[in-house]
C-alpha cells in the first residue's frame, strides 16, 4: 500500500478502517488485519480480487491455485474453464499486496489470520455457502460415478471447512450436516478412514442436536459410521452401532423399508467379520427379501445383497452357489452402474476369489487384474482396497507356483496398508503374514 499511497493518506485510511471495524466487535489481531484488508481492497489491480479473497478464505490455506479459484467462483465447469485466466489475474492482484504468497512449486498460500479477517466480510456466510455448494456438488458427482480419485485434490479443503463447524450449529448451517455426511462417506470410499470417522463424529453430534437420537437420519448416520468402523477393524464397535441403527429404524421407518434393509446388511457384515456366519446369512436373506419387494431385482442395492450373501456362503464352503450369486450381481451391476465403477471391481474381485478356491487360477488372475485396472482409475494405487487386490493377485500367482512374481504385489500391499491403516490393522497383519510366508518359501528354496 505504501508504494501506491502517500503515507499520510494511508495512515488516515487505516485509522478510519480500525474505528469502523472496532464498532462491529472486531478485536485483536483480526482488527488490524481486517483494517489493512479494507484499505487494500480499493487498490487491487483486478476488480474481482476482493470477491476472490472471500472465496479463498474458506479453503485450505496452503493449497490455493487459479483452477480451484475458478471452479468455486463459477456456476458450471464450462464457465470455470473460461474463468481460469481471470482467476490467475485475481491471485496476482492479491499477491501484489501479500494477501496471498506465491509458493516456489506453484500455487499460493494464505495466512490463517488473513482468512479469519476476510471471513468477517462475509457476515451472512453467502460466499461460504456458495463454496460449500460447489465443492459438495463435485464430491456428489465423483461419488455417484465412482471416480473418487478425481476428488482427492479437494480433500484438504473439505477438512478445512469442516474445522469451521461446531456441534451447536443447526441442520443447514455452514456446512450443512447433509454435505458433511456426504464428505465423510467420500473420504471413507477414498481410503481416508480416520479422517472420515472424525467428520462422522461431528455429523453425529449435529444430527443428535438438530433432530434427536430417534430420527431416521440419525439411524442412517450411525449405520454409515458402522461401515467405517468395520473398515477400521473395530468389528464389535460396528456391531453395536448397527444394532442401534436397527432399533431406531424399526420405529422411524419400519421393517419393510429399503433403508432398513441396508441396516440389516451392515449388521450382517459386522457379524460376518467376527465369524458369526449363520446369523449373518439369515440377516442377508432378510435384507434381500425386503429389497426384492421394495426396489426390485434389477436395482444396484439388490446386486449388493447378492454379493454379500455370496460372500458368507463362500465362507461356509458353498463355493458353487457363491459363484452363481456373484455372477448375478455382476450382470445387474453391468446394466446399472457400468463396468468401470469401483463397486463392479469389487464384484470382479469377489468372483475371482471363488474361482481361485475352485482351482480356476487363470480365470481368477484375469479378473483380479481387471479389478486392479478399474481401481487404479477410480480409487488410485494408494487405497486400502487396491492393496487388497494386490494381495489377492499375489495369492493366485503363488497358487500357480509363480512365487517370485507374487513377491512385489505383496510388498506393495503391505506398504499401502502401513501408510493408510497402520501396523495393527487386521489387513496389514494379514498381508504381512502372507509376505512372510512367501519370503520363507523363497529362502527355503534358495
- Taking the alpha carbons of the first and last residues, their distance comes to 73 Å
Give the total of beta strands.
Answer: 2
- Give a short account of the largest sheet: 2 strands, antiparallel
How are the strands ordered across the major sheet? Answer: 1-2
| Model regions low in confidence, pLDDT < 50 over at least 5 residues | none
The helicity comes to: over 70%
Tally the helices: 21
Rounded mean pLDDT is 92
Shape: elongated
Please give the radius of gyration in angstroms. 26 Å
Q: What structural class do the secondary elements suggest?
A: mainly alpha
* Share in β-strands: under 5%
Order of helices and strands: HHHHHEEHHHHHHHHHHHHHHHH
Topology:
Layout (H helix, E strand, L loop, with lengths): L6 H16 L5 H13 L8 H8 L9 H7 L4 H20 L4 E2 L5 E2 L2 H8 L6 H20 L9 H9 L13 H13 L3 H19 L4 H16 L3 H18 L5 H16 L3 H18 L5 H16 L3 H18 L5 H16 L3 H18 L5 H16 L3 H18 L5 H20 L1
Antiparallel strand pairs: 1-2
Helix pairs in contact: 1-2, 2-6, 3-5, 4-5, 7-9, 9-10, 10-11, 11-12, 11-13, 12-13, 13-14, 13-15, 14-15, 15-16, 16-17, 17-18, 18-19, 19-20, 19-21, 20-21
Amino acid at each position: 500500500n505504501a508504494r501506491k499511497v502517500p503515507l499520510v493518506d494511508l495512515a488516515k485510511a487505516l485509522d478510519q478502517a480500525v474505528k469502523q471495524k472496532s464498532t462491529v466487535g472486531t478485536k485483536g489481531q483480526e482488527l488490524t488485519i481486517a483494517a489493512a484488508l479494507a484499505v487494500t481492497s480499493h487498490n487491487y489491480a483486478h476488480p474481482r480480487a476482493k470477491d476472490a479473497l472471500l472465496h479463498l478464505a474458506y479453503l485450505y490455506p496452503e493449497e490455493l491455485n487459479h483452477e480451484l479459484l475458478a471452479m468455486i467462483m463459477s456456476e458450471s465447469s464450462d464457465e470455470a474453464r473460461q474463468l481460469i485466466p481471470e482467476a490467475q489475474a485475481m491471485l496476482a492482484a492479491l499477491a501484489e499486496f501479500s494477501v496471498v504468497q506465491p509458493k516456489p512449486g506453484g500455487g499460493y498460500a494464505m495466512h490463517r489470520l488473513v482468512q479469519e479477517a476476510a471471513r468477517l466480510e462475509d457476515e451472512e456466510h453467502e460466499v461460504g455457502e456458495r463454496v460449500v455448494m460447489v465443492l459438495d456438488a463435485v464430491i456428489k458427482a465423483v461419488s455417484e460415478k465412482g471416480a473418487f480419485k478425481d476428488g482427492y485434490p479437494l480433500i484438504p479443503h473439505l477438512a478445512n471447512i469442516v474445522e469451521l463447524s461446531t456441534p451447536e450449529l443447526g441442520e443447514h448451517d455452514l456446512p450443512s450436516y447433509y454435505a458433511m455426511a456426504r464428505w465423510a462417506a467420500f473420504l471413507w470410499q477414498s481410503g481416508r478412514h480416520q479422517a472420515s470417522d472424525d467428520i462422522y463424529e461431528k455429523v453425529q453430534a449435529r444430527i443428535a442436536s438438530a433432530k434427536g437420537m430417534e430420527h431416521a437420519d440419525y439411524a442412517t448416520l450411525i449405520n454409515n459410521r458402522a461401515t467405517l468402523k468395520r473398515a477400521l477393524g473395530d468389528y464389535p464397535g460396528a456391531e453395536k452401532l448397527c444394532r442401534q441403527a436397527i432399533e431406531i429404524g424399526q420405529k422411524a421407518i419400519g421393517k419393510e423399508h429399503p433403508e432398513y434393509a441396508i441396516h440389516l446388511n451392515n449388521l450382517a457384515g459386522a457379524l460376518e467379520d467376527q465369524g458369526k456366519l449363520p446369523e449373518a446369512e439369515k440377516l442377508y436373506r432378510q435384507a434381500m427379501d425386503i429389497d426384492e419387494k421394495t426396489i426390485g431385482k434389477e436395482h444396484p442395492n439388490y446386486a449388493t445383497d447378492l454379493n454379500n450373501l455370496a460372500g458368507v456362503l463362500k465362507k461356509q464352503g458353498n463355493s458353487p452357489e457363491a459363484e452363481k450369486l456373484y455372477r448375478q450381481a455382476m450382470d445387474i451391476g453391468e446394466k446399472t452402474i457400468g463396468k468401470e465403477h469401483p463397486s463392479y471391481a469389487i464384484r470382479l474381485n469377489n468372483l475371482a476369489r471363488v474361482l481361485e478356491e475352485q482351482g480356476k487360477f487363470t480365470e481368477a488372475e484375469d479378473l483380479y487384474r481387471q479389478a486392479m485396472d478399474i481401481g487404479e482409475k477410480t480409487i488410485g494405487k494408494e487405497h486400502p482396497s487396491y492393496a487388497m487386490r494386490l494381495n489377492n493377485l499375489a495369492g493366485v500367482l503363488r497358487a500357480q507356483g509363480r512365487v517370485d512374481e507374487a513377491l512385489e504385489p505383496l510388498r506393495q500391499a503391505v506398504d499401502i496398508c502401513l501408510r493408510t491403516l497402520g501396523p495393527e490393522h487386521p489387513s496389514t497383519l494379514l498381508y504381512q503374514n502372507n509376505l512372510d510366508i512367501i519370503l520363507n518359501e523363497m529362502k527355503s528354496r534358495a
